[in-house]
# Entry
Amino acid sequence: MTNFLFWNLHGNPIHEIISRLAHQHQIDVIILAECRISPATLLKALNPLGSADYFYAPIFGCEKLEFYTRFSSGYLLPIEESARMSIRHLNLPGIIDTLVAAIHFNDKRNWSDDSQMMAIGNFARTINDVEDRIGHKRTILVGDFNMNPFETGMVSTMGLHATMDRRIAQRVERTVQKETYTYFYNPMWSLLGDASPGAPGTYYYNNSEPRTYFWNMFDQVLIRPELLDRFNNTSLKIIDQTGDVKFLNEKGQPNSAISDHLPILFKLEL
Amino acid sequence: MDSLWPKLDRNVPSAPVAILKEQASLLGKSTQNLVIAEIETLQVVDTTIKLKPFGLADVSNLMMSISDKSFNSSLIFQYAFYLVAPALNHYRYQLFLIGYGIDFYPVHFRLDSDVQQELGISEASDIVVQTEEQFLGILKTIFSAEKTQRVIQAIWTQSEALATNSMTEL
# Structure
């Protein structure tokens, strides 16, 4: 079982909390956005004196995402990057060869929904290109998409083509106007709202616009059909505390002193 | 039958992609081919969302119009510019996209967001250049940007380290 954690840190120095989470859940791959903690600081927190569990996976070009691994970072080398996306090749001996793509997409303060929709197509194309290069589509895409699972950029064939239904994703691809598009499965749909386990979303935003969701599910993991047999929905969690440290404030919203986003945790049987 | 075609003149300005390819070929000479550049032709996707003019900006003395974020079907030629490390399993870093129509100019750029920030241009804007001179100017600006230099240094150093390790193992 390979355990993944993604968290947008909101630039906060919460290395001790990350370390607690990592050890509590035996995280193998930690992916961080808006991380201003130096690798030295976080490594010292992750590796108490006398231990060397975690490694820092050096950055080449994508400076908006940081990777830490519980194995030599040489097994998670980047293959293709841009400012906001890093696609890495996980080829650890003994587990199935997988592509791990992470994204920290442009936010809605700076980009309209239309602009997000147009730009996400470039990311989708890049993932397809890398899959063609590597020769398989065993890909997970995780990160802060700054879009909800139901938005056009997430669902459309022009975007990431991520469906809420595992059975539909297992059809592998869909042809629209003679072009074929591979599905992603988006399990985050099942965690939307207050009747789902954990918090209603990963990010809370309240404004005076007529349309306000309050809770948003900006932090997501998408899984290609080839990996679905290796993913159990019950392993996917929005985490709201570690030990006695609660990530929600007294109103039940993310405590921005820790982070304005909640972390997500998921496991794959690789 | 006589040819009805007029005398065809190929004496037209260089296509922007030809300039890009020439510049791409020059990078390897400075890095012993440990870092090279590649141009990839993008498949143009038909979107229905059109350009919305936004305003004007002056960056590094280049007059460029800025439009709302959009790479759309009106830009029939679209290319991605990558920095590539052949020795690192062909690692690629996408530095920018360009798009243009049948007339070559204007050329629309979508820059790496860090480079764009470095140039003081809002991330929500595309850069549009109107002439070859402006095109060459913005290329020079992008290639000289700190972020571009950081990426080149990172993959160059890593490639060098790999080469050194390989020699040691021998």
In short: The two ends of chain B are 70 Å apart (CA to CA).
